[in-house]
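Can't attach files on this board, so I'm pasting raw text. These are the components:
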Amino acid sequence: MPSHILIFFVIIPIIIAVFVYVFAGLKSARLIAVIAQSAFLVMALFMLIASRTNEITISVGGYEGFLGIILRADNLAAIFIFLTVFIFLGLVIYNLRSEYNHTDRLYWFLLFILEGTLIGLFLTRDFFNIFVLMEVSTVVVVILLMHDRKRRNLFAGMTFIMVNIVVMQFYLFGLGYLYMVTGVMDMEAAAYVIAHMDTTELALPYALIMTSIAAKCSLLPLLTWLPKVNALTGSRFTIAALMSGLHIKSGVYLFIRFQDVFGGMASEFFLCIGIITAIAGIILALSQKDIRLLLAYSTVAQVGLIIAGLSLNDEYSRIGSVYHVVNHGLIKVALFLGAGMISYLYKTKDITKIRGLLRVSKPVAIANILAVLGITGATFFGSSISKYFMISGVTGALEWVFIFINFGTILVFVRYSAIFFGRPKGAVLAPDWCRESVVLCLGISCFALGVQPAINFLLNQQVELSFWGYLEKNIVFVISVVAAYLVYKFILVKRDFLRPLRRFDLSFKTMCVSIGAFFGVLLVVLKVG
Amino acid sequence: MTQVLLFFWVFSAACIVFSRKAYRVIIYFGVFSLITSVVYLALGAPDVAMSEAGISAFATIFFIVCIEQYYGRGEGLKSEAIASRRKIRVTFMKFVPAFLFTAGLFLLFVNSVPTGYAFTELRDQYLRMFMQDVGGENAVTAIYLGYRVYDTLFEALLLVIAVVAVTHVSWFSSEEVPDGQHSEIENSRMTKFTMRIICPIILLFGAYLIMNGHFTAGGGFLGGLAFASFFICRYLVLGIYDLPIKKVMKMEELVFINITILPIFAVFTGVVYLVADVTPLFQNIYLVAMSALVGMKVACGFFILFYRHIAIERLPADIDKKE
Amino acid sequence: MNLHIFDIFPIILFFISFFGLITTNNTMKSIVFIMLMQTAVIMFWVGVGARFGAQPPIIGDIAYLENPDAIADPLPQALMLTAIIIGIAVTAINITMLNALFRKYKTMNWQALQNLSSTEVEEDA
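---
Top answer:
Structure tokens for the assembled complex are below.
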């Protein structure tokens, strides 16, 4: 019976969601949310421990062979689920006090359903089930983005949902070809069949499926949708945190899974795309003034980095990338929630107008500093270790590219760090302790992930840091910080030459063209290479 | 025969792409859906054919409500401005690169179509096993409600969310229709008379589909669509929106909870079968109960979508924003 | 190149609707094209299922024993039932959004909508 926990892990959030929506009042909804999320955290921890020794597998309904849908929790899935549940618990506590939050029953309903679908997405091994869950999560995210009726931006929401549907048609088409050539719907079975097949047969299904997954990760041709959606007027910072920290990671997860199924086809192509995405994301982040857009473009850059790290075909790089997903998820949620509090305190989203955070609210400032140190890869933080492993798989010129990307990230966050210093202008409001504690906890957890036992526990692998290698990395980090500070002080502050990029945006038609172009280029690469 | 149908299918779609007037788009879309469902039938997929026929009716209603605002009600059919002569060159310059791009993608696509054929083991296994595993005689229903009921769950969930979404993203925040809203179009007596006769038959047909979904083509979804189209007929006859949408929404969510709970006992954990043996009778009871639940769910969902579009989305714009 | 007859028509329709998506200016037409795209994919799936035979997979024992190879694959059909419902649900949401947008801006043109909504964002900021 213990393997039934997988089914219940998906269904119970959904049942709770509908139950809350139909029966509960707002106060009891909050209570139920906290209790349920704590229980989920325990369950996820149990699953993480159980999946260390052997994978938990269940065929829903107990049908033999590949007739039914198979759910499986291996270590990777358990890590992602733990991250999901942890972030949702943080969000629930963040929204707990009622003075100035905007939650209603619909909000909790959608939040729980999103949690259920994300967990389902991480557990399922069935291709079509992934399609259904992705559609559900897209629709849920769209309603969450439009949650504020008075200030919502319907146009961006409609563009978002329509682009996502077009992309999902590519996925479904590719799935049809995959079913045609393999005759199965299960990942493990498909991987087995594909291993014994000619790769030219698989070029088309691979290109179609990967186009959709690249769009879900907001890789290069489509990199504007995530920032655009995050910066919608009327969308909450919590939703932006959810999108950046978690929803985009489901795309990364599917990328890992499908690369495994197809045996790592076209990994050079994705290495290039990941690097270009990272650089483009950094340049666009440097040009932004809106705090949400800056953080969102930084997310795009980090996801590009993760995709590049996953495409290196190196065991250590893969471990580092997976670990960076966890780190980045927590860091981005901490940054976005912190930014939400900052913009509430200062009543503005323009980072050139926010100054002197250290004087206004110590806990928020400390949490933000911890997160900023985390994302830049400072010594002892989790992401310094993940970045160390990521870089350990590359040699030669490529290593310098990775160092340059990290330099760009540092540059972005040196610019961001200006908000901590100086004198606050104008009247500022008093922060809320509930939110402060959540942000502080998230900031500290970014730090805690850098401890050796945490790494070994999460990844279920004894990873050894070489002392000299790590020292070398940290020296490079210090040099990068100094260089970034000098570049910021003497070039970026003086002249705002990235200004024209600030309004960079893609229309719906351009997005469709770029989906097609991505698909075409990928197919050509597969056919030539 | 199928090839000819498929040719007309693509042709009607091309008509949609190249037609310049919104009303024509809707009409071509109806023709397109009709041909689609006939082709499905020719390809041996009666369930899919019936679903396509059912949803195309609702899709047409949605589109008509949409373009009705575009043209305005009761002012006749104003046509969209047709591109003038000078503009044609601009259009041409815009279309040619897009056409070349699409054609290039198409050729690339066609050139890399895989030649291999699937192993048919999975199909054979399904056809061999479904009668004892799930029961019934319709393999599609067996997969839909048995092997892949987990998918069906999320599909039902998506319909719940769609209803919530339509209520939430709509211009009008009210969930209830203002009292005494009548449709201003008076249908002819002949239409009303025919509808009055058809209505019970539709209900009966829906019940038949739900009860017999596991033996013939049909099932919960189609039965639900039939029940929902009963409400369309009712609207056409009475011309009044008087059903409480809010209560139906609540009912829909309750039915959804049941849809999740029933498979938990019957399929996911098999608790029911610990008590009793797996007999065909038990299996049939499960299939019919599940069909009925899905049918109720779909009927409620499409009823709300229909009423919202026909009753609320068409309200004049100045009624809203009183809040 | 070894194209089955059930392949080529859905592919053509897929790219016709793709062409429509990248050329049209009308938002409602875009929604119709997305529906066409969905139908193309669904037709392709049903065609995959009917590749070896197009008899409906509704069988008693006898029919199966007589000619098991002529029966269509039931799995794609069951999956496509789900896909159809997803398609119509999402279309309903899209149309409602479009209605609300049209009430606000009185246009269905993509470019005009984008300009109008981006000016509004600037006012907000």
